[in-house]
Amino acid sequence: MNKTELIAEVANKAGLSRKDAEKALGAVVETITEAVVKGDKVQLVGFGSFETKQREARTGRNPKTKETIEIPATRVPVFKAGKALKDAVAE
Predict the structure, then answer these.
(1) Which CATH architecture is the domain 41-91 placed in?
(2) Neighbours of 25 (CB within 10 A)
(3) Is the predicted pLDDT of residue 91 greater than 90, yes or no?
(4) Is 91 helix (H, G, I), strand (E, B) or coil?
(5) Average pLDDT score over residue span 19-28
(6) What secondary structure does DSSP assign to 27-65, as a single string?
(7) Which Pfam family name is an example for this entry (predicted)?
(8) N or C: which terminus of the chain has fewer CB atoms within 10 Å of its end residue's CB?
(9) Count of beta carbons in the 10 Å neighbourhood of residue 21
């Protein structure tokens, strides 16, 4: 499902116009993104949580040249599915 299809489904299920559903979805995504960028954890009970994790610096290897390289520490976004979502997918 892509964004356009998701907007259509939200509009249909919520009884909204496509334009209103697009605004609502955009606001939700923007709000989650801003919170995660700030370092906050966004938890939607039953669906899952969005947060960032710190990845430590590590030594890697260039597969082409076999040269050892240093990979710097970085923050990475993480989504962890909630129990209800996991159960729904498993069925």
Answers:
(1) Irregular (4.10)
(2) 15
(3) no
(4) coil
(5) 96
(6) HHHHHHHHHHHHT--EEETTTEEEEEEEEPPEEEE-TTT
(7) Bac_DNA_binding
(8) C
(9) 20
**Structure tokens belonging to residue 3:** 């964004």
Please, which residues have CB within 8 angstroms of residue 56's CB and are 6 or more apart in sequence? Answer: 73
Cβ-proximal residues to 70 (8 Å cutoff; 6+ apart), any chain: 57, 58, 59, 60
CA angle 29, 33, 36 (to 5 degrees): 140
Does the reported pTM lie above 0.85? Answer: no
- CA proximity to 8, closest of 62, 78, 17: 17
Q: Using CB atoms within 10 A of its CB, is residue 7 exposed (0-12), middle (13-18) or buried (19+)? A: buried
